[in-house]
């Protein structure tokens, strides 16, 4: 699958409050557990009942995600992506 956010895309993301519910399919900004200084944008693939989130990229063949660094906790989630404003999405007719 082609990535929904190409490299260099500009997005609007909303910081999360503790009470903000997260759902499978949400695109989030997260700190990598193995490199906390690095923020990544990934989609929530699954949520463990204990609270761990499994994050995946839209292009699994070329993505570093929970398959490499494992599930993350809610504390790693910084924001939820609301929309992409650049580059403009293709026009559908």
Helix/strand layout:
Elements: E1 10-15, E2 27-31, E3 39-47, E4 53-56, H1 66-69, E5 77-86
General description of the model:
The chain is mainly β. It has one domain (10-86): Umud Fragment, subunit A. The protein is 4% helix and 37% strand. The protein has one helix and five strands, in the order ββββαβ. The protein has one helix at residues 66-69, and strands at residues 10-15, 27-31, 39-47, 53-56, 77-86. A five-stranded antiparallel beta sheet has the order 1-5-2-3-4, with no helix packed on it. The radius of gyration is 13 Å and the shape is globular. The protein starts with 9 loop residues before the first strand and ends in a 7-residue tail after the last strand. The relative contact order is 0.31.
Give a nutshell description of this structure.
With 93 residues, this protein is mainly beta. The protein is 4% helix and 37% strand.
